[in-house]
Specification:
This protein is α+β, with helices and mostly antiparallel strands and about 325 residues long. It has eight helices and seven strands. It folds into two domains: about 220 residues, Lambda Exonuclease, Chain A, CATH 3.90.320; about 45 residues. The chain binds iron/sulfur cluster (SF4).
């Protein structure tokens, strides 16, 4: 039985069904549009293109992470008061926000609104991405419009399903100035959609999933002639780097399977290989974002100089068909 012929259309249909709760996204601006790239958000409405199957499968991973967390929250010994997929509407403008989870009280039973934005990742980043922070701040602002009084906070929950890791980036609070800035970005996007303004491209880690990358001005580089020996070196570098990236991905997957077999502590040797696994215990680290937010006067006094370095990127240029 060959699954491929039906796979593409079925994955598209699955994605459509899973996104049904978001309604017709061409009729409003959502929090991910406000936090993301204006050019992409505008083109998604004016020139819709289906994402590739790998991108759709990555979207599905996000739904799977939410479903898993819901199961975990429901299994808590304490009854948690929360809702999933909460829709917030701006009173006057076609602006909405969809909250993955909205908690109505903390674990002590004290009333507090806490938004959780779930992000499915391959590898938990050291710091939340700026787009994640903007999306959450916008959601907190939209929530404040609906609930003018009381504590409002939020966190980003990054889930790496492959590695079985979850990390909470916590401590976000409603911030009027940040929300006003993001609200202006939403109004700018409305102007762009009404042809009153030009969209700006904002490159980010999400560009790799963008269907409008091909002709994106932020991705185009000036044409130059390179000396042949430099061109050859660049080719070799790109080739080696791509093998390294592939090898690192493969290593990560194999490492996971090996440690699934060995557990966190293991020593042993077959006729051909010795295998040792040791555990590094969890440790505490300073959350720079939280420090900056809660102690803005202290933050500059604990900064230290980090030396700069040259960053080299060499990529194969795609030839036009
Ligand atoms: S490639 Fe990046 S910068 Fe360009 S439109 Fe897509 S998301 Fe925006």
């Amino acid at each position: 039985m060959n699954l491929y012929p039906f796979f593409e259309s079925a994955v598209l249909e699955m994605n459509r069904r899973q996104s049904e709760s978001l309604g017709d996204r061409t009729q409003y601006i959502g929090s991910s549009d406000v936090a993301g790239c204006t050019r992409k958000a505008a083109l998604q409405r004016k020139d819709p293109k289906s994402p590739s199957v790998p991108t759709l499968l990555k979207f599905a991973r996000g739904h799977a992470a939410e479903w898993m967390l819901d199961g975990i929250f429901q299994s808590s010994s304490t009854k948690l008061h929360y809702d999933r997929q909460v829709e917030l509407k701006h009173p006057d403008m076609p602006l909405k926000a969809h909250l993955d989870f909205l908690f109505y009280e903390d674990f002590d039973g004290n009333p507090e609104l806490h938004v959780i934005e779930v992000k499915s990742v391959s590898g938990i980043p050291d710091e939340p991405y700026p787009q994640w922070e903007d999306q959450l701040h916008y959601q907190l602002g939209m929530l404040r419009l609906q609930y003018p009084k009381g504590n409002i906070g939020g966190s980003v929950l990054a889930v790496d399903l492959n590695a079985g890791e979850v990390h909470q980036f916590n401590g976000f609070q409603y911030d009027e100035a940040v929300f006003n800035y993001l609200y202006c970005r939403a109004l700018h996007l409305l102007d762009v959609l009404n042809d009153h303004d030009q969209p700006q491209a904002s490159p980010s880690h999400l560009c790799s999933y963008c269907q409008y990358r091909q002709d994106c001005p932020a991705m185009s580089l000036p044409k130059i002639a390179l000396p042949p020996e430099i061109e050859a070196l660049a080719g070799k570098y790109a080739e080696l780097n791509s093998s390294r990236i592939k090898a690192e991905k493969e290593l990560k997957a194999i490492r996971q399977e090996l440690t699934d077999f060995t557990g966190p502590s293991f020593k042993g040797q077959s006729g051909r290989f010795s295998l040792q696994v040791t555990s590094v215990p969890p440790s505490l680290t300073v959350d720079a974002g939280l420090l900056k937010q809660q102690y803005p006067q202290i933050y500059p006094t604990v900064l230290k100089q980090k030396s700069g370095y040259s960053k080299l990127e060499v990529k194969q240029v795609k030839q036009a068909a």
